[in-house]
Specification:
By secondary structure, the protein is α/β, with parallel strands linked by helices. The chain binds NADP nicotinamide-adenine-dinucleotide phosphate and guanosine-5'-diphosphate-alpha-D-mannose.
C-alpha cells in the first residue's frame, strides 16, 4: 500500500472507529479548573497516548512522528494538499500500519482553515498537540509577509482557539524559534533574553509565542514554547543553507551541478542535530507544570565554517579567491570555481549571530545535545553523497 492509498485507508478507518471515539467522549470533557486540565485523562494511562503533529511532512515532524511511535503513541498528522508529492519524509512510517490497530493516521487540513482543525481535533482527540507547521523559511518570508503572518502567526491562534472551543485537556507545544532574538541584545540567548525579530517570519513567530503564553495564562491551558535554535539533518529542506551546501557539493561531485551560489557567509548560527531536538519537544510536554524552554548546543559557527567543513568532509581540496561579492572557492584538483556569491540570497535584514544557552533545559528536562558540528556535517554529507550516488573526491 503506498502513502496515498494509506491516507484513504486511514480516513475510512477513522469512520469505523468514530462510534468508539464517541463512547470515550466523557473522558475528555472540559473542566473549568485549570489544575485539573493539566492531568492526563485516566483512560490514556491504560491506552496508547495520542498525539497530533501539524507539519508532520517537514523535517522535525517526521523525526517527531518516529520518536512518538517508538514510545507507543498513536500518531495523527495534519497534511495539506499539494500538487506534488510531499510525504517523502514520512512514507516509510506507513509500513507499520495495521488494519486492526492503526497507530499512524494522516488527515487533510491546513493551518489556514479553522474548520479542518476543529474536525481533525474532534476525530483525533489528542493528549498532545505539536504545532510544527509554518511557512518556515526566513528569506521567503520577506517575499510573502502576509502569508507568513497568516500561517506562522494566526495559524497558531486558529489551533489554540479550536482546542479551547472543543474543550480538550490537550497539552500544546508551539515551535518557537531563536529567530525571535534576531538582532540579539545579549549573548548567549536564554529564556529571559529580550526579542528583536528581524523578518516577517520572526515577527509572526513572536506573535505565536506570546499567544501561546497568553492562552496558558488566560485559560490555564498546558501550552508551552520550545525556543529552538537551528537544527539540521539529512531531512532538512533543500533551500536552507546547510542542506543546500551538502546537497550541492554532492551534485557537483556527481557532475549534475557546476557551481553552488550562496549569500552571506559571515552569519553565525548555533546548529544542532534535529533528531535530538524533537526529543526535547516531547520532554517539555511531560513536565508537571507548563513552561518555556530554549534548546541549543551553545556553540556557534559561520556559514563559511559549515561550507569549509563540508568541502573537507567530501575531500575536495579548495582555495579561496576574491573578497565580498567577488569571493569564490576553487577546486584545486580541477581548477573549477565551485562556490560563488549571489547577492540575491542576501536578506533585507540579517540575523548576524545566534548562540543559545540551554542550561534550563539541561537542568529541568535533562535534555542535552550530543552531536558535534563536524559530526553533523559528516552525517549530512554522507547522506547526500549516497543520494547523489557518488563517493568522496
Ligand atoms: P519544515 O521542514 O519547513 O516543515 C514545515 C511543515 O509545515 C511542513 O510539514 C509543511 O507542509 C507544513 N506547512 C506549511 N504550511 C502549512 C499550512 N498552511 N498548513 C499546514 N501545514 C503547513 O520546518 P522544520 O524545520 O521541520 O521546522 C518545524 C517548525 O519548527 C517550524 O514551525 C519552524 O518554523 C520551527 N523551527 C525550526 C527550526 C529549525 O532549525 N529547523 C528552528 C526553530 C523553529 P508541506 O510539507 O506540505 O510543505
Ligand atoms: N537559505 C539560505 N540560502 N541561507 C543562506 C544562503 C543561501 O543561499 N547563503 C547564506 N545564507 C545565510 C542566511 O542569510 C542566514 O544568515 C543563514 O545562512 C542561515 O539561513 P537558513 O539556513 O535559511 O536558516 P535561518 O537561520 O534563516 O532559519 C532557520 O532557523 C531558524 C531558527 O533560528 C529556519 O529553520 C527557521 O524556520 C528557524 O526558525
Amino acid at each position: 500500500m503506498n502513502a496515498v492509498e494509506n491516507l484513504g485507508y486511514s480516513l475510512r478507518s477513522i469512520g469505523k472507529i468514530r462510534p468508539w471515539i464517541a463512547s470515550l467522549k466523557t473522558l475528555f470533557i472540559h473542566t473549568d479548573f485549570p489544575s485539573q486540565r493539566f492531568q492526563p485523562c485516566t483512560m490514556s494511562m491504560t491506552m496508547s497516548r495520542r498525539a497530533l503533529i501539524t507539519g508532520i511532512t517537514g523535517q522535525d515532524g517526521s523525526y517527531l512522528a518516529e520518536f512518538l511511535l517508538t514510545k507507543g503513541y498513536a500518531v495523527h498528522g495534519l497534511v495539506r494538499r499539494a500538487s506534488t508529492f510531499n510525504r517523502g519524509r514520512i512514507e516509510h512510517l506507513f509500513k507499520d500500519v495495521s488494519r486492526d490497530a492503526p497507530n499512524f493516521q494522516l488527515h487533510y487540513g491546513d493551518l489556514a482553515d479553522s474548520n479542518s482543525l476543529i474536525r481533525i481535533l474532534t476525530i483525533a482527540k489528542p493528549d498532545e498537540v505539536y504545532n510544527l507547521a509554518a511557512q518556515s523559511h526566513v528569506g521567503v518570508s520577506f517575499d510573502t509577509p502576509e502569508y507568513t503572518g497568516d500561517i506562522t502567526g494566526i495559524g497558531t491562534t486558529r489551533l489554540l482557539e479550536a482546542l479551547r472551543t472543543i474543550g480538550l485537556p490537550t497539552r500544546f507545544y508551539q515551535a518557537s524559534s531563536s529567530e525571535l532574538y534576531g538582532k540579539a541584545l545579549t549573548t548567549p540567548q536564554n529564556e529571559d533574553t529580550p526579542f528583536y525579530p528581524r523578518s516577517p517570519y520572526g515577527c509572526a513567530k513572536a506573535y505565536a509565542y506570546y499567544l501561546t503564553r497568553n492562552y496558558r495564562e488566560s485559560y490555564g491551558m498546558f501550552a508551552v514554547n520550545g525556543i529552538l535554535f537551528n537544527h539540521e539533518s539529512p531531512r532538512r529542506g533543500e533551500n536552507f543553507v546547510t542542506r543546500k551546501i551538502t546537497l550541492s557539493i554532492a551534485n557537483i561531485l556527481a557532475g549534475r551541478q557546476e557551481c553552488l551560489y550562496l549569500g552571506n557567509l559571515e552569519a553565525k548560527r548555533d546548529w544542532g542535530y534535529a533528531k535530538e531536538f524533537v526529543e526535547g519537544m516531547w520532554m517539555m510536554l511531560q513536565q508537571p507544570v507548563p513552561d518555556d524552554f530554549v534548546l541549543a548546543t551553545g556553540r556557534a559557527a559561520t556559514v563559511r565554517e559549515f561550507l569549509e567543513l563540508a568541502l573537507t568532509e567530501a575531500r575536495i581540496p579548495f582555495e579561496r579567491t576574491g573578497i565580498g561579492k567577488e569571493e569564490a572557492y576553487r577546486d584545486t584538483r580541477t581548477g573549477k570555481v565551485i562556490v560563488k556569491i549571489d547577492p540575491h540570497y542576501y536578506r533585507p535584514a540579517e540575523v548576524d549571530f545566534l548562540v543559545g544557552d540551554a542550561s534550563k533545559a539541561r537542568s529541568k528536562l535533562g535534555w542535552q545535545p550530543k552531536t558535534s558540528l563536524p559530526e553533523l556535517v559528516a552525517i549530512m554529507m554522507e547522506a547526500d553523497l549516497k543520494l547523489a550516488g557518488v563517493q568522496k573526491a
